[in-house]
Amino acid sequence: VCSTWGNNHFKTFDGDIYQFPGICEYNFASDCRESYKEFSVHIQRVLNSNNHPEIQYILVTIKDFTVYLRPKLAVVDGRIVKTPYYSSGILIESTDIYTKVYAKLGMTLIWNQADALMVELDSKFNNHTCGLCGDYNGVPIYNEFINGGDYNSITYGNLQKISNPSAKCEDPDETQALPSCNGHRDECERLLTSPAFDDCRLRLNLEMYIQACMQDKCACNGNEDSFCLCSTISEYSRQCSHAGGRPGEWRTQHFC
C-alpha cells in the first residue's frame, strides 16, 4: 500500500515516510516496465482557501482507459459517468466520503476526495513501479533516496513531475530542507497510543506516524485547526483498518 495525506506526507510501498510539497502534476505510482505499462496514477495538489494542501485531481490510466477524478466527479475516456460505473475490468464507486477505483489487473485506489489517497497493488508489480510511491522492491530508502547521489525527498519528488509546458507551477526549492521538528513528541504519542488504537500498535510502525504528527504540529505554528491536528491521526486509523485492525472511536465532539 502506498499513501499520501495531510501536510504533504507520503508513505511508499516499501514503508518510507517523507514530505514533498509540490503542486505540479506528478507520477504517484506507475507500472514502469519498459514495454507495455499496465497502469499509471498521477496526482495534482492545490492549496485550498485555508492554505492547506488537498488533491485537486487524480488521473488514472488502466491499459487503454483513462479515468479522471475530481471530488464528486468521474470522467472515463472524456465522458462524465455515473457511479457505480463498471466496464472492462474497472469498477468506480463513490460515496459522499470516498471515491474508489478497483482494477482487475491488481490495483485498488481509495481517495477521501480531499487530502488522502491510498493505492494498493498486487504483488505481481513487485520491483516494477516508479513514482512518488517508489519502486516496491521491499527495500526501504536505498533505491528511492540514495540512488548513487545524496537525494533528499524534494529532489526525489521533483523528478516525478509530469512535463506539461502549459502548467503554471513552480518546483519546490531543493536547497530548502523541510524544517526538522523535535517538539510535541509527548502529545503525538499520547494521541496515537490512546486506547482506541490498541488494536493498531502491532500492525503499523507507530514511530513513523508519531514523526509525521510532530511535523504537522510544528507546521501549525500554534494555529491548531483540525487539518493539522487530525490528518495524520485519521491516516493512522485508515491504515490500521486496512491492515485488518479495528480502531475504536477516537473522534469526539471536541476533537476531529
TrEMBL record:
It holds the Pfam family VWD. GO terms for cellular component: extracellular matrix; extracellular space. InterPro entries: Mucin_vWF_Thrombospondin_sf, VWF/SSPO/ZAN-like_Cys-rich_dom, VWF_type-D. It comes from the Eukaryota. Residues 1-170 form the VWFD domain. Keywords: Disulfide bond, Glycoprotein. PANTHER family: EXTRACELLULAR MATRIX GLYCOPROTEIN RELATED (PTHR11339), MUCIN-2 (PTHR11339:SF371). This is MUC2 protein. It comes from Aegotheles bennettii. The gene is Muc2_1.
